[in-house]
Amino acid sequence: MKRFHKQSPYRVTMNEAFADVLEGCASRRQEGTWITFEVKRAWLRLYESGHAHSVEVWNGHKLVGGMYGLALGQIFCGESMFSRQENASKTALWVFCQHFVKHQGRLIDCQVINPHTASLGAQEIPRVDYLQYVQSLAWQPVSEGCWRTQTLF
Question: Once rounded to an integer, what is the mean pLDDT over residues 22-48?
Answer without folding.
Answer: 90
